[in-house]
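tl;dr need the bound structure. longer version: we got a ligand (6-O-phosphoryl inosine monophosphate) that a collaborator sent over and nobodys looked at where it sits. i said id run it. heres the input, straight from their email, havent touched it
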Amino acid sequence: MAVDLLLGLQWGDEGKGKIVDVLTKSYDIIARFQGGPNAGHTLEFDGIKHVLHTIPSGIFHPSAINLIGNGVVIDPVIFRKEIKGLMPYNIDFNTKLLISKKAHIILPTHRLLDAASEASKGKAKIGSTLKGIGPTYMDKTGRNGIRIGDILLTDWKNKYHLLSKKHLKMLDYFNSEIEFDLKSMEKEFFESLEVIKSCQIVDSEEYISKAQKAGKKILAEGAQGSLLDIDFGTYPYVTSSNTTAAGACTGLGIAPNKIKNVFGIFKAYTTRVGRGPFPTELFDESGKTMAKVGNEFGSTTGRSRRCGWIDLVALKYSIEINGVTQLMMMKGDVLSGFKNIKACSSYEMENGETTLFFPYDSGAKGLKPVYKELKGWSEDLTKITDEKYFPETFKEYIKFLEKELETPIKIVSVGPDRKQTIFIN
Ligand code: GDP
Ligand code: IMO
Ligand code: MG
């Protein structure tokens, strides 16, 4: 059975958690393939809002298996808190949650290094979530990392202490002023590892391969967004993993020819949290309205998200790299009340040239978005249950996007709740 992928096409927070939750009833396995607790995936149903960081977004469905793949980096302390937060919901974690032996562990000192590295950058800082993501992936590719499978071995603590010692030396290099109490951080860390040990730790690539052969349906859940991809994003203002489709192959051990549908998810406008280029960013009342109505605050850090009009140049780039087969548009409801809606269709460079391709330096001086303008809609969309009730101008916006992006929009979301999801025929 083929695997489907769901991934963000912008700078994250597109609404991946919500849609994975909605789609889970059609899948047997939901698998996270990259990133770590820098992710904050929000789900809303029965009047309750849940934010997941490490645990896949299918966890509330009784039948689905949720797998944390080898490409993910896990902070045991955050993981334990997540599990604890979900205790009231009677989830059978022993049978429903699997963790790859090959997933890497975020150590307390990785978090310290993240903070010190960011602080040392001054104005050039990335705006990291400071969850230790960069340093952990550095140790992974540097072949120094500690993996979940290691904690099942008896002598792994030596490895831990050597690595942590090295990190402390690196902290000296940064000359940082961050204060910390490593002893208490380590206490919490080792206690939290016991929670991980009590979960099913598996050879996830083997599990997935067997599941595929047994005809199980698998949905791979991306974290972050394509424009935060370590290779194709707005480097260096990116995260440290491959957030694009190829990341699902390496992050789960899925062969490329086993991937069928690639669901690309985007907001009807654009947001970004953290620093880095954002050609369509708005600094005016329109941007403030999007932030306010869309409640654009980071699910992980609570920081304000920067807002702007939809960027078709960036979206086309993401669609191409990921091989997106169908689109899902979120938060159209937030744009209700705008007299006109703008969509960036090209960039004008400082030398007057126009580009349709997302450029190497999307933060180049003088780069200006060129907009097409469409009529807005004033109706509230949040109670609409069928596309036939969409206002005409909203329908036109959808049609316009499908034409520009050359890809069908199959889901339109009109609110944060599970139920506010409209499947398009
Ligand atoms: P993720 O990281 O991609 O899972 O997205 P986040 O959860 O970080 O951010 C998306 C936010 O938008 C969350 O607060 C969701 O509850 C909310 N949301 C999702 N879809 C919609 C929608 O269609 N309309 C509105 N108004 N909010 C939505
Ligand atoms: P979800 O899965 C939005 C951003 C950070 C920062 C940059 C690097 O919820 O969409 P990192 O912590 O990885 O070192 O931060 O990436 N970032 C996200 N922005 N949504 C996310 O995840 C993000 N995860 C990281 O703000 O700019
Ligand atoms: Mg998020």
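gonna send this back to them w/ a short note. The chain has a mean pLDDT of 97.
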